[in-house]
């Protein structure tokens, strides 16, 4: 039976409706895809690759923890650290050592990097740190003050004056008008602390965070002059970074509430 004119009209109308619906669906899909693409573009991009962080020795424990948390949160990323005295790290950066992020134990050492034009953006203080005296477990020499360290019968170790912890110790000594001749000046705070841990020294002036990290291997003694020598810790993206998005994300973690919680637990003070 041949289709009537009425049937052809209905069929044609139905086809037109289907085409319109299909076009609308296609349009909605494109719009949705574009919207999704836009949302994805405006959100955080998928992070990958390696980030190299040069950080002050006193940050070793907390930054290692944050690095593991970062890698877990962003599969495909790797955070590599180089810990040491801030002055040595700054010299390496200005000398051309490849790195993405620099976290210094003082604004002075950070200034070496910014003055050389090796920082990208303005460094931001993310924590502060205070000095403490580290003694042998049980404090057998009964050290109770900074003045007690000036006794000739004590073997005391300081960080080198070019290192932030050494500069802070000297500032505290100057503020209290005390003179101290250490048995050695160490290249970074971990080296100074280790002298006490190995019982090669009776005491060392280090950071509270390092005393805390050492656990029962040393005993900490607070002293009021330390309040006059608190160090600000700045962090910055480096101009030589080849993985800026991932580097920025790690810096964001450090400065986030989660990052601050890890740093506070290690003994660092809020900025």
Automatic annotation (TrEMBL):
Keywords: Metal-binding, Molybdenum, Signal. PROSITE patterns: PROKAR_LIPOPROTEIN. InterPro entries: ModA, ModA/WtpA. One of its GO terms (biological process) is molybdate ion transport. GO terms for molecular function: metal ion binding; molybdate ion binding. Molybdate binds at residues 58, 86, 189, 207. PANTHER family: MOLYBDATE-BINDING PERIPLASMIC PROTEIN, SULFATE-BINDING PROTEIN. Belongs to the bacterial solute-binding protein ModA family. This is Molybdate ABC transporter, periplasmic molybdate-binding protein. The lineage of its organism: Bacteria, Bacillati, Actinomycetota, Actinomycetes, Kitasatosporales.
């Amino acid at each position: 039976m041949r289709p009537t004119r009425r049937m052809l009209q209905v069929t044609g109308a139905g086809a037109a409706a289907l085409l319109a619906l299909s076009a609308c669906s296609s349009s909605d899909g494109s719009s949705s895809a574009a919207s999704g693409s836009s949302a994805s573009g405006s959100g955080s991009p998928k992070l990958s690759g390696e980030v190299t962080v040069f950080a002050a020795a006193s940050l070793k424990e907390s930054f290692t923890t944050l690095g593991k948390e970062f890698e877990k949160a962003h599969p495909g990323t790797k955070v590599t650290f180089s810990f040491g005295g801030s002055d040595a790290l700054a010299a390496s950066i200005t000398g051309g050592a490849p790195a993405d992020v620099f976290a210094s134990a003082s604004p002075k050492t950070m200034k070496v990097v910014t003055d050389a034009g090796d920082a990208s953006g303005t460094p931001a203080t993310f924590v502060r740190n205070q000095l403490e005296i580290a003694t042998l477990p049980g404090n057998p020499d009964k050290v109770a003050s900074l003045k007690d360290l000036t006794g000739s019968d004590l073997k005391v170790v300081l960080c080198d004056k070019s290192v932030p912890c050494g500069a802070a110790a000297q500032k505290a000594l100057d503020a209290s008008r005390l003179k101290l001749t250490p048995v050695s000046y160490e290249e970074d705070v971990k080296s100074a602390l280790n002298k006490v841990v190995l019982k090669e020294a009776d005491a060392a002036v280090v950071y509270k965070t390092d005393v805390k990290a050492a656990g029962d291997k040393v005993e900490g003694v607070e002293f009021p002059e330390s309040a006059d020598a608190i160090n600000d810790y700045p962090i910055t993206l480096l101009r030589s970074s080849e993985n800026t998005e991932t580097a920025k994300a790690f810096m964001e973690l450090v400065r986030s509430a989660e990052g601050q919680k890890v740093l506070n637990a290690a003994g660092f003070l809020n900025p």
